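Exercise 7. Predict the structure of Guanidinium exporter from Prosthecobacter dejongeii.
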Amino acid sequence: MAWIYLLLAGLTEIAWAIGLKHTQGWTRLWPSVFTASLMVISFSLLSQALKTLPIGTGYAVWTGIGAVGTAIIGIVFFDEPRTVVRLICIACILVGIIGLKISSPTS
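Solution. The predicted structure, encoded as tokens:
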């Protein structure tokens, strides 16, 4: 169950990271409320996952899911650069997430 919490925490991290773009520096009320709510949900889910997962694994996977997901959404929806180096770096993060999952004592 911890890995499900962690996956959901990572997905909500992607959502709040994208939400930050829409808050325009926290100057727009409803995007800011929605983004702050997603942050609370993400941290709560992460906290639940860390009850049983090692902190280093949980935090690294959480931030990795957020980084990879946000970078991919940036490429697809916000026309951010699709350079080979950038895609290789995203792939490296993904490999790291998979490696941490495989090597986790609670996998």
